[in-house]
Input
Amino acid sequence: MKNNLLIILAIILLQSCAETPAIDPKIDMIKKVETGLITPIYIEGDSSWTIDERMEHYGVPGVSIAVINNGKIEWTKSYGFVDKESKSPVTEKRSFRQHLLVNL
Output
């Protein structure tokens, strides 16, 4: 009985010392951008779009996003394909002719 109690206490002690995973605020920001797109004129109750939904709606095969904060690149991520036929994926290194600046 005494040995069982010591084993249980040892297990509890080891679990309490385990590192908790760090929460990355960058992941939250990426999710917000990926899932929270709204129309230019937002009416309360309107639903937001995901990047995939917006790309599908407008027939855009691929985009690359760079989020800049205080003059520094916070993160970049690419979605989709360079064109629908080749299925060649868009990368952060790909340059596009059009750029859009959005304030978050």
